Amino acid sequence: MKPMDVQFVIGLSGYFVKDLEAVRRSPAYDPLSDNIPPRTSGFRSVVQAGQVISIMLHLPCGEIAVGDCVDVIFSGAASRDSLFIAEEHLPILEAVVKPWLLSCDISNFRQNARRVDLPWKELRNCRLHSAVRYGLTQALLAATALVQRRTIAEVICREWGLGSIADRPVDILASCHRNDTLQLDRIIMKKAPMLPHASFVHVSDIGPQGTVLMDYVNAVARRIQERAPPGYHPRLHFDVYGTLGDVFPETTNLADFLGQLRERARPYALLIESPIIASSKSVQIQQLAGLRACLKRKGIDVQIVADEWCNTLQDIRDFADADAVDYVQIKMPDLGGVDQSIDAVLYCHGKGIGCCLGGSANETDVSARITAHVALATRPDFLLSKPGIGADEGLMILTNEMLRGIALAKRAHSRL
């Protein structure tokens, strides 16, 4: 079966895009004002509204399959593709991709996804932007599910030989703003399995010698104890975007600081994402592996999550092979095709390394729902709430989509 028509629509993403290099190099950064010049190619200002291109495949059965082309907040950083500017990619979609879409058989997803990932001769043997590959494969996966009259999760299980989908929702890391205590209380009330993410992007965010971060970790742990429903024992996760490595360049000193954070987080488990952002992937792997080994020697129970420089399927394989971290974040827009994220989760399982099937607050409701189905099929250790950093909305979209997928699969199985 082939699509009858294809439409492309430019719209808004779930958050914004930001020039990470400019922020990190700025001696003082005010997130509410554009007071520093951009450093990363494509940025007109340090913070810009995010864009998407929705791809709509009109199917012969009357259904419409949708996927959203979208990138992450910190586009162009740490080997990522450049900032996604929708107007630059719309002509390519219309002239090059649309004719191919109208000719492809959508009854099978995986073979179409492989084609999307390859170089295109019409583009001088270059690949499509990762955001475009992401949106294209979302739409193709949704189309295959509609044609097969299965859930997206069931299509993935069928094509990858994974058996049945998960029978309960995968844990979700609810991403909260650092300065929104009411939001934190709501997420505690809703018993999110993990919280609060709470981005610390600039060294000023963590305070002198990390004192602000230390106080914040302590405050979150105490707030959970004060407000937690009975039996609620979440894991705490904080994304520090390399700021700790900037303040504590010596591995031993950084490990000692993480030991102090560990005490502030008790009685909850503690995960730290991107404690270091190095100058290259190889150095990043080396430094994170060294930090992890140091933590083990000192008996400090803090789990490390990789993000920057861990962007593609090959990157994830390299981090996993080196046993450099406890978890990798699989940022789905960075990997491009949805099939790449599926393969990444399965590779992590095979290597015995944890993984977060993540992405970005900059994503959309469409991409988040497809992520929920990928999670049901592949069973990562946890998800990152998306879109946005409202936490409530992302938690709702992902949780409800997983619950619906589980219910539909159970109903189909009971009718066999």
TrEMBL record:
Catalytic activity, as annotated: (2S,3S)-3-methyl-L-aspartate = mesaconate + NH4(+)
Residue span(s) of domain Methylaspartate ammonia-lyase C-terminal: 165-411
UniProt-annotated catalytic positions: 331
Domain Methylaspartate ammonia-lyase N-terminal stretches: 1-161
Site (Transition state stabilizer): 197
Cofactor(s) listed in the protein's UniProt record: Mg(2+)
GO molecular function annotations of the record: metal ion binding; methylaspartate ammonia-lyase activity
Pfam families: MAAL_C (PF07476), MAAL_N (PF05034)
Entry binding sites for Mg(2+): 239, 273, 307
SUPFAM superfamilies membership: Enolase C-terminal domain-like (SSF51604), Enolase N-terminal domain-like (SSF54826)
EC number(s) from the headed UniProt entry: 4.3.1.2
Pathway of action: Amino-acid degradation; L-glutamate degradation via mesaconate pathway; acetate and pyruvate from L-glutamate: step 2/4
Gene3D superfamilies according to UniProt: Enolase-like C-terminal domain, Enolase-like, N-terminal domain
Keywords annotated in UniProt: Lyase, Magnesium, Metal-binding
Enzyme class: lyase
Oligomer status and interactors: Homodimer.
Name of protein: methylaspartate ammonia-lyase
Organism lineage string: Eukaryota, Fungi, Dikarya, Ascomycota, Pezizomycotina
